[in-house]
Fold:
Amino acid sequence: MQATKKELMDRLGVGYVLGPYENCPWLVYDGEKGVTCSAEVRMGMDDSDGVEAAIEMIYEMPDAGQPPAEHTFLLQARNTNSGNWTISKVWIRGEPIDETISGWPEKACNFFAAVVQSLKQDEVPDIDDLLEQELRGGRGADQYGGGGGKSPKIQANKLLNPRGRGF
Structure:
């Protein structure tokens, strides 16, 4: 994935271009669940330092064997010196992303943006659901990004409105 700095910031949900040492944070706390989710996009000293996007979950009362803080996601983007940016590395729960997944840079950005969208709506996102939807392709998709299974059966009468004029 090649993108301008502005396009990268838009893909990550920032909406504007970050300056040197600038960051764009989001944070939501759910008192009922005892969980905090934070996400942040941060810029280095200059374009050569790159951009990082991170997601962390913090639990007040973690389950047995679960750490109180989980570094859920980390994305690193680098300037290609041609004015474009590329996603260089992504880690999910401490493991590098499976780079055999078709379109993994775009899917990683989509996942991060989906988490940010939930945070902007003042909701703690369901990380596992979003990972399944955005990164792993959702229902019936294979690891190569395509849908699996049968072709959908479309009934023409379901496409028409009550007046029979289509959409």
Remarks:
- Strands lie at 2-3, 23-30, 35-43, 51-59, 69-79, 85-92, 95-96.
- Confidence is low (pLDDT under 50) at residues 139-152.
